[in-house]
Amino acid sequence: MRTNAYRACDLCEAICGLELRFEDGALAAIHGDAADPFSQGHICPKGNAILDLETDPDRLRVPMLREGSAWRAIGWDEAFALAGSRLAAIQQAHGPASVAAYLGNPNVHHFGHIAYLPSLLRMLRTPNIFSASSVDQWPHQFACAQMYGHQFLLPIPDIDHTDYFLMLGANPMASNGSLMTAPGIPRRLKALTARGKLVVVDPRRTETAAIASQHIPIRPGGDALFLVALLQAMQQVSPPRLDAYAGRLAGLDIALAAINAIDTASLEAETGIAMHVVEQVAREFLAAPHAVAYGRMGVSVQPWGTLCQVLLQLVNLVSGNLDRVGGALPNEPAIPITGPGTNQGTRGRWHSRVRGLPEFAGELPVACMAEEIATPGDGQVRALLTCAGNPVLSTPDGRAVDRALEGLEFMVAIDIYINETTRHADLILPPASPLTQDHYDSIFNAFAVRRVARLNRALHPRGEDERADWEIINGLGEAYAASAGKQWQPLPPPRDLIAIGLARGDSGLDLAALDAAPHGLDLGPLRPSLLTRLQTASGCIECEPPALLAELERFAARERSDNANAGLRLIGRREVRSNNSWMHNAPRLAKGKPRHQLLMHPDDMTARGLQDGGRVAVRSRIGEIRTEVLADAGLMPGVACLPHGYGHGREGIQLARASAVPGESYNDLTDPLAIEGGCGNAALNALPIEVEALP
């Protein structure tokens, strides 16, 4: 018997519609859903990899207790009781800060995590909450919090209606969009370049740069100076176009005066970009009927992440393209994530114990997590809860994180694998298949390039010994509360919470409407709404937020280089088959030629006596890795490029396929002291390195 069912892919940011084909109750094939109004049949390799995830023999199905180096299965009631009692006992002995939590990137992809974890974290009352956000998009959120009053009032590029797209440090052909959720991105970019122009500013000729109208190579870390020069050039072409924002701007004159005071004479030396190229971009941007500027990972995970993101907002503002069709507009999701009662994105309410780094949006920078575990004293982290995260591979100085985890008194992980991080856990609680759970994408719908909605219904029941993500979090909360003498109010099933969320919005949708549309609903294009939704105290766009002036002052005092090719700077990369470190155990994603190598420009290799395909030692301030190097003329000279998410060759992991995947961890080189100055995001890019040939 053959049946079809429909869901969205929740393994990446594109939320593509999938058609899942079952034969005799078993998942047999996955195709793009041609009837999905948003993705229109698009599917990437990650969608097909769900087949591997569902049948993976290494995937955990029941709670696992570690006894020395061995693991044994235990029951759910015993597991919850153990986790709750140990966490409560450690806090009772050492205080609330002694228990920490780390939340990985997959949490935002699943309703059973993102909607349920906050209640558990609030009950723990620990200041030590960390997540993958601070090695990713914090500067983007922080800029919006300071300028618009909410971290998720985040203007999205209106890619389907713009005529000129200036893209910095983003590679949507590999990432499928990210903070510009856009399934079928090749189709959308092809349409854009047919009617207008796509300009990609990036140190590498990425997959996106290869199809762009123009690729402008830039020295890693040079984006801030490029954007300062661009704003100065735009003002020389035309006065700011501010009619649409009359009476709703605060401090723009001060902001522009501070930007105009920055000396750009060193532009070409520091960035590799000549001034006439910047002037060309300024003229074209202002001449386009609709234009948008956007920066993603390469802009955020560098020393000037916050400054770059504020400057990008100002580029859209002074050109009149902010909150305008064809420019950058915030989405209006059916389940709102802004407004009263939501996390606006405060900063500095508390600070980390060792280094004094300020919190943002209720979290501390993950760059300081290892030191909070390893440094003795009052408030030392002694127990850790990880949820769908692998910080050993995904946070700065992964080897230090690895060592720190060994010293914990207790660790519990919500995860489906024994991986580089969870091998240190005392207890692993594995969630059931997402196909057994109701799901609504409350986050990436809010970052989509159209207003869309879809309810993904459970396709088959869970086994008797399986628990959904939300059931695990409820079970942990109940057990911890019982041991700590606190009250726990379990949250209802996802369908109930989704219904409550829909009722908070003004889309007019309810569960019945979503149930009646298994392929999803298209609610229309993005439309101007930012000015009516501002949550700043002044009710205005804050054009000179404190972070801008502080970062401009720091930027003016920066150490400058007279030679754009002095030394090597490391940048990361991602490929369409890569999902960070999540999916290297999936044969469909890990197959094919090796993709772990360091890339360098041929001239840089010749200067160092390196051979194509040869073994090299790569060194940073904090460590060394050994890998192979390949020549890539698409890289700017002075730049080396390494993918992240590799480095599975560690003792104790139980991932048969991933263990055979070659490659070393990018984060065995990254520096926990290298953080950008605005919000404390890790500066993973523009990392100084040395590369030397090995025998």
What does this structure look like?
- It is a single chain.
- With 695 residues, the protein is α/β, with parallel strands linked by helices.
- The chain has four domains: 2-55, 2-Layer Sandwich (Phosphorylase Kinase, domain 1); 74-124 and 360-525, Rossmann fold, CATH 3.40.50.740; 155-329 and 536-555, Dimethylsulfoxide Reductase, domain 2 (3-Layer(aba) Sandwich), CATH 3.40.228.10; 567-693, Beta Barrel (Barwin-like endoglucanases), CATH 2.40.40.
- It has 26 helices and 30 strands.
- Strand 27 and strand 28 (624-631) form a beta hairpin.
- Helix 3 crosses helix 19.
- The longest helix has 19 residues, at 76-94.
- It is globular and about 70 Å long.
- The N and C termini lie far apart (59 Å).
- The mean pLDDT is 95.
Features:
single chain; 695 residues; alpha/beta; Phosphorylase Kinase, domain 1; Rossmann fold; Dimethylsulfoxide Reductase, domain 2; 4 domains; seven-stranded mixed β-sheet; six-stranded mixed beta barrel; 31% helix
Largest sheet: 7 strands, mixed
Query: What is the tally of beta strands?
Result: 30
How many separate helices?
26
Q: Rough shape? A: globular
The end-to-end span amounts to: 59 Å
What is the strand arrangement across the widest sheet? 5-4-19-18-17-6-7
Strand content: 15-25%
Q: Tell me what the CATH architecture of the largest domain is.
A: 3-Layer(aba) Sandwich
Say what the CATH topology of the largest domain is: Rossmann fold
Report Rg. 24 Å
Provide the number of structural domains. 4
Helix content: 25-40%
**Low-confidence spans:** none
Structural class: alpha/beta
CATH class of the largest domain: Alpha Beta
Mean pLDDT, to the nearest integer, reads: 95
- Write down the oligomeric state: single chain
